[in-house]
Design goal:
Layout lengths: L1 H33 L11 E4 L5 E7 L5 E5 L13 H4 L4 E5 L16 H15 L4 E6 L2 H11 L4 E7 L11 H13 L1 H10 L8 H12 L3 H17 L1 H4 L8 E6 L6 H5 L5 E6 L6 H4 L1 H21 L1
Parallel strand pairs: 3-4, 3-5, 5-6, 6-7, 7-8
Antiparallel strand pairs: 1-2, 2-4
Helix pairs in contact: 3-4, 5-6, 5-8, 6-7
Keywords: Hydrolase
GO molecular function: hydrolase activity
Protein name: Alpha/beta hydrolase fold protein
């Protein structure tokens, strides 16, 4: 009986071990398939050093003459572009950036300004050696890519804002800023949850909504609040519009219709501005409506590349 028990116990652990090994292999296969890479060629994050010494994590997928730099928004990270990697890396080099204080990048900064975030992206562009770049920024990432274009104008051929640049002349006041930030400063998790929920369409799958809200609400509050101050201050001072005196590359948007776009205001400052609107889509359209979003973004990228070759 004891021998039978030993054999039974041995068989149980052998089976458990085999299942564990199979689980690991399946996970690796699914991960690599999810990002459009073959076999065990998983693209591990790389690092670049920003101007202030911050360590910036980034990932590179695919090859191509044109490099697409994807920059996330406030309290997000590179994972928010996971639905774009397989699609766009087939024809282009795709680079996902974690800004300082986000994702896998270091979080030792005192002030998280748009200029410092722009330096993060510049460090990545210089690290990969790209000379023909399209900057793609979601939400606050729009302000970041504008700063990046100002820093490396000779390498950037266009900017694409994702549900951002609604009105770069928006007359924000200190009082309005304080009203927005007060709930976040009082109780960040609850305040962020309420803040983000208002940016998500009612048609968005509940699983997607829950993930976005929970993930962003778990962001480091000090980083998030500092970044919000930096972002909103650009509208209070007028810097959100003034920066385009130096940034002369064409600007495009792929946006939802949650907030209207003031085309006239943007065109008073930008060298050119055009937008594609996905009806019924809200702020996180690259996650909630990935197929439609990818098609719209791809059309924009094709136009940019075509125009750049003609100029």
């Amino acid at each position: 009986m004891q021998n039978m028990e030993k054999r039974s116990s041995k068989g149980f652990y052998e089976t458990l071990f085999i299942k564990l090994i199979l689980s690991i292999f399946i996970s690796i296969f699914l991960l690599s398939a999810d990002y459009g890479v073959a076999g065990a060629e998983i693209c591990l994050p790389q690092t670049a050093i920003s101007k202030d010494g911050s360590v910036i994590s980034y990932e590179v997928y695919g090859e191509g003459e044109t490099t697409l730099i994807f920059v996330h928004g406030w309290s997000c990270d590179s994972r928010y572009w996971r639905e774009q990697v397989p699609f766009f890396s087939k024809q282009n080099k795709v680079v996902l950036v974690d800004l300082a204080g986000h994702g896998h990048s270091s979080a030792e900064r005192v002030n998280y300004t748009m200029r410092s975030f722009g330096e993060d992206v510049r460090a990545v562009v210089e690290a990969i050696g790209s000379t023909k770049v399209i900057l793609i920024g979601h939400s606050m990432g729009g302000a970041v890519i504008a700063e990046t274009a100002r820093l490396i104008p000779d390498k950037v051929i266009a900017l694409i804002g994702i549900d951002t640049f609604d009105n770069i002349e928006y007359p924000l006041t200190e009082e309005e800023k304080d009203k927005i930030l007060a709930p976040l400063e009082k109780d960040f998790r609850t305040g962020c949850s309420n803040f983000v929920n208002g940016m998500i369409s009612n048609s968005t799958a509940q699983s997607v909504r829950s993930w976005i809200v929970t993930d962003m609400s778990a962001a480091p509050s000090a980083v998030a609040i500092s970044a919000n101050h930096g972002y909103f201050d650009q509208y209070i001072t007028g810097e959100a519009a003034d920066i385009f005196k130096e940034v002369r590359q064409p600007v495009y948007c792929v946006s939802g219709d949650l907030w209207p776009i003031n085309y006239e205001a943007n065109r008073r400052h930008m060298s050119s501005f055009n937008a594609k609107i996905l009806k019924g889509a809200a702020h996180f359209l690259m996650i909630a409506r990935p197929k439609e979003f990818n098609m719209a973004l791809n059309e924009t990228i094709i136009k940019i590349i075509k125009d750049s070759k003609q100029n």
